[in-house]
Amino acid sequence: RTYNVAILGATGAVGQEMIKILMERNFPINELHLLASKRSAGKKMEINGKEYSIEETTEQSFQGMDIVLGAAENDIAKRFLPKAVEAGAVVVDNSSAYRLDPNVPLVIPEVNPEAVASHNGIIANPNCATIIALVALAPLHRYAKAKRMVVSTYQAVSGAGVNGIRELNQQVGAIAHEKEVEVSTFQYQIAYNLIPQIGGFNEAGYSSEEMKMQNEGRKIMDNPDLCVNCTCVRVPVYRSHSESIMVEFDKEISVEKARALLQTAPGVKLVDDPEHQKYPMPLDTTDQDLVYVGRIREDMSNHTNALSFWCCGDQVRKGAATNAVQIAELVIAQMEK
Ligand code: 2RA
Question: Where is the active site (predicted)?
Answer without folding.
Answer: 128 (acyl-thioester intermediate), 241 (proton acceptor)
